[in-house]
Amino acid sequence: MKSTTAPRATSSDPAVAGPPPRSSGFGRRGPRHGPADRAGGGIRRQLPTSPWLFAAPGLLIVGAFSLYPFLSTLINSFTDRRTLVAGEFVGLANFAELLDDEMFWIGLRNSTLYVLGVVPALVLLPLLLALLVQRQIPGITFFRSAFYTPVVASIVVVGLIWVWMLDDRGLVNSLLEIVGVGKIGFLSDQWLLLMSAMAVTVWKGLGYYMIIYLAALANVPRELHEAAAVDGAGAVRRFVTVTMPAVRSTMVLVGALSSVAAFKVFSEVYLMAGPTGGPAGEDTTLVMLVQRVGTGLSGRVGYASAISVVVFVVTVALMLLVLRADRKEDA
Fold it and tell me: Over its length of 331 residues, how does the chain's per-residue pLDDT go in tens digits?
């Protein structure tokens, strides 16, 4: 008698095994995408030029407004180009003329004094101001906004306000006459005018650098201050031994930024001293000299470009000096 048991189905039988397993799509040559993938439903192959297409607008702006003017100034510094004349190559003649130009040395002196007078104040005073407004007390938001207001104010408006205040018939001299001190020539004396411009620069920059210090102070652990207080350290000692070391890198950053800005000062001195640069031009800075020499129908563009190159070299040297001093302290 024959057995009625049906043969056992194997996985090779199409009716029993079901549909074949789907391929992962990966082979020796990478993933294989079907029509759905090519239609936008899957992974697309990125073109090697895609990152450059995204960066192209930014690169064009930097090239047009930063790189091209820099290269043009560098090339013009070796020519005798004027405003309406193309000029010819003169080599280092413009730089040699700088050595005999009295106004260049006056501008270099004033710009250097500006750095020496402004940078220490802008490194230390905003830090003290940030410590004052860091505390969470009622009404502190108002004081933070008040200290930051000069930063967003127009430099032209700020300069005119201070000129009106420091003029011989201004508010400050009127008050000095009332108390019997007499008038002080803030805008007529060579050195007082330069110091008045420094005061305006410090007053306008306090709020900006205060914000930078506030961000740095927020990262200082409170446990350090508490431990120093337990050891008997007072407020001044905690500031010197805890706060300043903790924000030293920020102080270096502020020093570098303020040094470059102070050496390139123009608006404050120009508004308070006028286009002539104060009495007999004794308060002229290097950037004011560039503007005076290189503008107008007969402007010496080549000579002004040489002065600009000197300003660039000095500002880079200032930044390198600040960074090198910071590395020495780390070592």
Answer: 444 444 454 444 444 455 555 554 444 454 555 444 444 555 566 667 778 888 889 989 989 998 999 999 999 999 999 988 888 999 999 999 999 999 999 999 999 999 999 999 999 999 999 998 887 777 788 888 888 999 999 999 999 999 999 998 889 999 999 998 888 989 988 999 999 999 999 999 999 999 999 999 988 888 887 888 888 888 888 888 888 888 988 999 999 999 999 999 999 999 999 888 888 889 999 999 999 999 888 899 999 999 999 999 999 998 888 888 777 666 6
Q: Decide: pTM greater than 0.85.
A: no
**Under a CB-based contact definition with an 8 Å cutoff, are residues 315 and 264 in contact?**
yes
Helix (H), strand (E) counts: the chain? 17, 2
Q: Is 264 helix (H, G, I), strand (E, B) or coil?
A: coil
- Contact predicate 286/111, CB 8 Å: yes
DSSP 3-state assignment of 117?
Answer: helix
Amino acid letter at 227? A
- Could you tell me if 232 and 241 are in contact, meaning their C-beta atoms sit under 8 angstroms apart? no
Using CA atoms of 40, 46, 47, 53 in order, give the dihedral in degrees to the nearest 10. 90
φ, ψ of residue 31 to 5 degrees: the values are -70, 145
